[in-house]
Structures are given as C-alpha cells and as structure tokens.
C-alpha cells in the first residue's frame, strides 16, 4: 500500500497545485473525465482535512496559512467556480466548505479572502451572482454567495453591480428550487446590512419599487407572497425612512396593496394588510393618498368589519385591524372632501 502515498502531495502548496492541474484536465473531457473528477474529489477531501482536521489530527494554523496563500496566488477559487459544473456532486459540496472556511479566516481585523475577492479576483463574485442561470450549480453558487454577503463590502459590490437586478428575474425561474434559492439570496442582499440597504433603497427607489411591484403582480402564488413579505420586512426598518416616505406617498403602491386585500387568499390578504396599515397610520399623508382612502372609506369599513382573522390566533393582529378600522372611520366622508 505504500505506493499509494507517493501520489499524495506532501505540502499544502503541492496539494493546491495538484488540484489545479486536475481541474485543468477536466476540459479535456473524453473517457478520462471520471478519473479527473475523482482526482479533484480526492484533493478536495485532503484540503478539507487541512482546514478542519480529522479523527487523528487537529487543524494546524501554519498549514492553513500556507494553503490559503497558495489558493490566492494560483486563483484556485476561480478555477473551482469556473469549472463547478464539471465537478461531481460531493466535490461541489466540498467547494462550499472551502469557500466558507476561507471567508471566516481572519488575520487581525483583516479578512484575506474578502480582500482577494474584491480586489484580486472579482470575476469570482460575478460568476456567483450569475449562479441561478445554471440549474446544475445554481444552488451551490447561491450558498457560497450568501456566505460572501455576510461581509458588507461584498454586499455593496453586488448591490452596485447592474447584475444585481437580474435577481428579480431569477426568482421567477420555472425551476422551483432555483427560484426559491434566488429569493433567499435576494432577501439577504437587501436585509443583511441595514445602513447599506438604506442607502441603496434611497438611491434606487424607482428601480427597486418597479421591480418589487412587478413580482407582487406575478401570477405565481409563491413569488407573489414572498415578494409582499420582503416588502413588509423592509417597511418595518426605520433606517429606510427615505424609501418609506416615498413609498407611502405613491398612489400606485396603495392601489397595488388594495388589490392584495381583495385577493382570494387569506394569507395574501394578511400580508397586504401589514403594508396597507402604514398608508392609514402615517401621520402626514399626501393629499393624493388621502383622497383614495376617503373615496374608498365605506368599502374599507365593510371589508375590515368582516375581516375574520381569528383563525391566526394573533391578538396583535386583531388589535391592529381594530385600530386601522377606527382610523378609517375617522376619515371625512366623501361629501366633505371639498
């Protein structure tokens, strides 16, 4: 059995170089493709042992440092992402572990992998952003991307990139798993770093509102509901004040939310209510918003008097409904508008 060990790289640097060599051979294809995949899998398993140890050995910081340096200097992460489709299923999972572990690695206050991704090889982030375009590797790319998003500088990089807006298309993918995963990524991108998101929403109000409203009008129930819930989460954030002021002064938004209240789905009605209540409760309403509320006052009263939400067993929800009903009843009758 001794001959087997001769094939094993002796150092972390050798291991990364050997992995890169096998990745390059994947392009050759042919009858040996399975052999090259198996070799990649073997080396990735050994890398995982260096990073996390095994039953016999604990991870050694100096070995991890050598491995990480070689990963950066040889663009191993780029090679792995670019050739992700050619790796087998287990190897793709190991790539996720490699990324996740290196992202968490810090030297003092510095995050070398984050620095590498932003300033050294941003093409990796571009590939990850485009992940949902592949049904084979989209879920893996999504998982890695969300680990990257935990770092504000990467989150900012993605939000200012025009490719970010593709996520409003990705969440409508006919492949359910891809659409669902893309929505998780979209959610994290616009909720994780509150101050950053507040600036983004303020600078991109028109594009974002148009995009989210299109999703809310989707014929797909899951897309519609997820979109409304995301919007409801954003309007609860006080940091988004500029966005909120514009959103709740926009009559198109009010009309769209009113349609949700009339939806046959009780769940969508509830989701819509969580946004509608802010139009009513806002202390300083624009005249155009006020006119619509007054014009529909009787309809609103009839609706909320019959808005049966007891099945949700939520006393706060009942209190909110009663409060909004009271506020609507306080509105002037339509004859008194002038």
From TrEMBL:
> Which InterPro entries would you find in this protein's record?
ARM-like, ARM-type_fold, Mo25
Q: Signal sequence: where?
A: none
Please give the name of this protein: Piso0_000244 protein
GO-annotated biological processes: intracellular signal transduction
Family designation: Belongs to the Mo25 family.
Task: Please provide, alphabetically and separated by semicolons, the GO molecular function terms listed in this UniProt record.
Answer: protein serine/threonine kinase activator activity
- The organism encoding this protein is Pichia sorbitophila (strain ATCC MYA-4447 / BCRC 22081 / CBS 7064 / NBRC 10061 / NRRL Y-12695) (Hybrid yeast)
